[in-house]
């Protein structure tokens, strides 16, 4: 049997050219978000299984890579089910670890606390285009701020970043879970079925109003209630403000402070950002996680059918770990999706200001000459801030030279 020569399905190797793009984008993320006062933190790749299976992560909890107990703790003979065999798992997102992190360290952190996390997460998903089992997530979160300053800062930071790496004319879609819940209740659906109904509504961009109608009636809901509910989602539902939307549909069941709060977020972002992108109220925006408690937002680009960033307010999650109520709001960019778009566009990285020099030396070089070369190279690296590569000359120097030039070495010195 030969060696297996490919990565695990759904996990990738990255060649130097692609790593250059990934590292450049990560650098821009860190630089941009730091100007907004976000602090870089790091959490472990594994968490106790009780934390990961806390019913805070929705469908993602079904995709956890679980880790067997080790040594004497692993009692296969007496195990009754999976729960007796595992005690930790790989994190499937960065929000649950952040909540646990904040609960552990809140006495040492400022309030409000602005956190930036960039790291790999793992999901036992079915790999396909754009879906991986290991991928980088990039989250910014603000904990301890109950006002809409959090939402405004998160949207401004994320859109500023996207502009910096060359994206414009995208759409920032905004809604509020309280609006979604109130409209469901207004149509007299059962209170206990809010999440179930919203999951179906979330499919409207894929299956249309007719598909949503068929799914809701097939689920046993009253046709009159379904018809009434779907009148809220006509063709021109996306508006410039929440107030404009409710004037169109002619209902006043939603708390006015919720509407005004959304419009204040949208108006502030528009006023600051100019016309580089659109900010719109979209009543069909749901976001899959039921832990959202207030404003929710997504960013859509023409280059991709799905969103490239999403987030919202989750005021009840941290309390599970901290024991006290902590307002929280976060925004996550789809790092892998953004990289995929940049690759498709043949994105050209900004020219590195550092000169790259290659010293190609003869294999028969004397020790004294080698020492002399390394002194010269060390001076270039330390005092002149050059990138210097030292390699032996290959038999096929023509190919070696072509490869060095392709890798950005503008000066090749033969020794």
Describe the structure in your own words:
- The chain has an eight-stranded mixed sheet. The chain has a three-stranded antiparallel sheet with strand order 2-4-3.
- The chain starts with 15 loop residues before the first helix and ends with a strand.
- It is globular and about 90 Å long.
- The chain has three domains: 214 residues, Bira Bifunctional Protein, Domain 2 (BirA Bifunctional Protein, domain 2); 100 residues; 59 residues, no CATH class.
- Helix 4 packs parallel to helix 10.
- Strand 9 and strand 10 form a beta hairpin.
- The protein is of the alpha/beta class and 415 residues long.
- It is built from 14 helices and 14 strands.
- The model has no long low-confidence stretch (mean pLDDT 90).
